Amino acid sequence: MHDLLSAAAPEPLPVYLAVMSLATLAVSALDGWRRGRRGQDAGVSHAALSLLSFAGGAAGGVLGFLLFDRRSNKRNVTWHVFSLVALMAWALVLVSLYVGPLDAGALRGALARDHTVLLAYLGGASAVTFVAFVADKLVAMHNGRGHDASRLPEMLLLLLALAGGAPGGLLAMLLARHKIRKPAFAAGLPMMLVVQAGAVAYLIQFGLA
Of 144, 145, 141, 149, which is closest to residue 178 (Cα–Cα)? Predict the structure, then answer.
């Protein structure tokens, strides 16, 4: 009887993640409602929403900003990118637990295979991201001399980094001294790099790239 009950009991981690995601989604809805009633800057603290996402509510956080706060701007971009990074990180945790952990021996063996396509994609993504960051820095310097040229949206730069270009974005940040004081970039890109390294390791180990 005990074995039957144990077999029927749900896994605790997926239940925890589901509860946290529902809680984060509810807080996101409250944030949208408060801003709608009291003005743009009167919502819930986005630091709290980011912490909820990293604590397990990432799916709810991403769904929340897609439903209630879709347009990224300087006010909410950190929360948006942290929610996306947290979602990727928790996805890796689930893969590790329910598909298989990273295995150093298997990974070494997999590295002997040809990974030209993956390397070409990652190199191209980093190159594009590097150029975008440097171009935005040059436009910012140009505008500082009295011009008013259009800048690249911050969310576009972050999405390029998130799509595999984090190494190029980090290199551009360091060389061009660009966006280094903004949490979405200063903290977001290193976290993206760690998550992307884990994702690439799994793709190689499982023979998917």
Answer: 141
